[in-house]
Amino acid sequence: MTGHPFACALLAPLLLAGCATATGRIENGMFYSAKGYRVTLPPTGWRVDAGQRADLALRGAARPGGMVVDATCGGRETARPLDVLARHLTFGLTRRDVLENGTSTVGGREAAHSVVRGVADGRTVTVEALVVRADPCVHDFLYVAPSEAFDEGRAAFRALVESFVLEPPR
């Protein structure tokens, strides 16, 4: 992420954990995934980072941080417990402090949810991660920002997650 290398350092290994290259299209402020879902893009302050391997990666235009939406379809990942998959999204952190851990609802389905503060590339960041299963896929949502700026982008991330809808690919 240009200008914010700490977010890039954490997101890069996490994005590599995804199974696919970027798939989908953007129309009228919506991202339509070829994997059968859509989300509404934040209206301002975020831009698409097309160079990532996730289905959708966004970076802060005027603020540090990034968001990722990705789906893994098929394979053994889809059979693992959601809380285990959510922990995998924060493996890049050291000196971890779990701030929130539990369940939530995404698109009408149960999701594992966690917020973890830790160190990535020598900087303190906070990561919010949600994982939801919608057979045959597991959907990951990730928001990473420097801890002191985390709250600035959290509402936009929550709106992105809440906009998640399963639908047949168009």
Describe, in plain words, how this protein is organized in 3D.
By secondary structure, the chain is an alpha+beta fold. The protein has three helices and eleven strands. It starts with a helix and ends with a strand.
| Main pleated sheet | 7 strands, antiparallel
Percent range of helical residues: 10-25%
Task: State the total count of DSSP E strands.
Answer: 11
Terminal Cα span: 30 Å
Task: Report Rg.
Answer: 14 Å
Q: What portion of residues belong to β-strands? A: 35-45%
Order of strands in the sheet with the most strands? 4-5-6-10-9-8-7
Shape: globular
What structural class do helix, strand and pairing data support?
Answer: alpha+beta
Task: Report the order of strands and helices.
Answer: HEEEEEEHEEEEHE
User: Count of DSSP helices?
Assistant: 3
* Mean pLDDT figure: 84
Low-confidence stretches: 1-10, 12-21
